[in-house]
């Protein structure tokens, strides 16, 4: 089968859509494991594995993308351990930020790599990067971003504080900040696509395409620059993520017609 990154006819492997190192390195370190938490009724459900797809990548390309996953997990490890996260942030005051060591170009490419895997996979029809599949693949292979990358791709990092909570299923205390959503959320917003990547302790808002940001909360937070060696991450209350989700729901559209068009575009791309 054809690998969707190197475009060569190769034996494809079972590739995780979300970096599996997020589970082994970040979530499994805690006793709660990988859980999904229903914030409304307080129930928890353990999920054993991340979603994988056997039809997108060869072993070599999967390992190559794994190098980016590693950079992302290193950032999350560092932010998870930042002392600032133990201080409950005040919801009504401006967020305090802490600078965390990271190569921001690698970080941006690691976010692009996640979106790319979801776009390569046909499991989530609405999640398609269109012509940006080619563009992101070229950046990732070159390990570089062009000077004008922000015209096509930009991201915001929002960190959140440790937030202990109780589940009604057990007496264990759960740290809500370890929450990992397995599928990005988002959709079309004007000429661009916007997605949320809800990862343990940090969440990223990503915009793909040439349209404007259409997300109210964005005005308060800077986008991630390229070529920097550290990133100032704001420390926010986990409960604020609900506001961001609501903002996102208002900002994007996921109409049936749009999903259908994404589907047809993808078919055309993959059969050329
Ligand atoms: Zn390949």
Short structural summary:
With 272 residues, the protein is an alpha+beta fold. The protein has helices at 21-27, 59-80, 104-120, 132-142, 240-251, 256-271; strands at 15-16, 35-37, 44-46, 52-53, 97-101, 153-160, 164-166, 173-175, 185-189, 192-199, 202-208, 230-236. Helix 1 packs parallel to helix 2 (59-80), helix 2 packs across helix 3 (104-120) and helix 3 crosses helix 4.
Mean pLDDT across the residues is 85
Total helices: the number is 6
**Strand order in the sheet with the most strands:** 5-12-6-11-10-9
Strand content: 15-25%
In one word, what is the shape?
globular
- Unreliably modeled segments: 29-34
Please report the total strand number as a whole number: 12
C-alpha Rg (nearest Å): 18 Å
Instruction: List bound small molecules.
Output: zinc ion
> What structural category arises from helix and sheet content?
alpha+beta
The main pleated sheet reads as: 6 strands, mixed
Measured between the Cα atoms of the first and last residue, the distance is: 14 Å
What is the H/E order? EHEEEHEHHEEEEEEEHH
Number of domains: 1
Helix content: 25-40%
Describe the structure.
- The protein is α+β, with helices and mostly antiparallel strands and 272 residues long.
- It has one domain (15-271).
- It has helices at 21-27, 59-80, 104-120, 132-142, 240-251, 256-271, and strands at residues 15-16, 35-37, 44-46, 52-53, 97-101, 153-160, 164-166, 173-175, 185-189, 192-199, 202-208, 230-236.
- Strand 9 and strand 10 (192-199) form a beta hairpin.
- Helix 1 runs parallel beside helix 2 (59-80) and helix 3 (104-120) packs across helix 4 (132-142).
- It is globular and about 50 Å long.
- The two termini are 14 Å apart.
- The protein binds zinc ion.
- Zinc ion binds at residues 3, 5-6, 8, 10, 57-58, 60-61.
């Amino acid at each position: 089968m054809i690998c969707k990154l190197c475009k060569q006819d190769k034996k494809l492997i079972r590739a995780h859509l979300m970096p599996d190192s997020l589970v082994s390195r970040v979530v499994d370190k805690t006793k709660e494991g990988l859980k999904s938490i229903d914030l409304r009724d307080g129930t928890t459900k353990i999920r054993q594995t991340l979603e994988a797809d056997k039809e997108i990548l060869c072993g070599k390309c999967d390992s190559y993308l794994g190098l980016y996953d590693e950079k992302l997990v290193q950032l999350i490890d560092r932010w998870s351990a930042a002392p600032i996260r133990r201080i409950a942030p005040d919801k009504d005051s401006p967020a305090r930020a802490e600078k965390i060591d990271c190569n921001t170009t690698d970080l941006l490419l690691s976010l692009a790599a996640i979106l790319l895997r979801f776009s390569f996979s046909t499991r989530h029809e609405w999640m398609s990067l269109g012509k940006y599949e080619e563009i992101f693949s070229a950046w990732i292979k070159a390990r570089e971003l062009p000077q004008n990358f922000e015209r096509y791709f930009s991201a915001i990092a929002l960190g959140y504080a440790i937030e202990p909570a109780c589940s009604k299923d057990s007496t264990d205390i759960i740290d809500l900040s370890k929450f990992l959503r397995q599928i990005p959320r988002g959709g079309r917003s004007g000429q661009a696509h916007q997605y949320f990547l809800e990862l343990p302790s940090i969440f990223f808002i990503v915009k793909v395409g040439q349209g404007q940001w259409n997300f109210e909360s964005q005005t308060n937070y800077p986008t991630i620059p390229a070529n920097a060696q550290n990133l100032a991450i704001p420390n926010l209350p986990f409960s604020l993520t609900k506001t961001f989700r609501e903002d996102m729901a208002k900002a994007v559209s996921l109409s049936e017609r749009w999903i259908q068009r994404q589907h047809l575009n993808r078919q055309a791309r993959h059969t050329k």
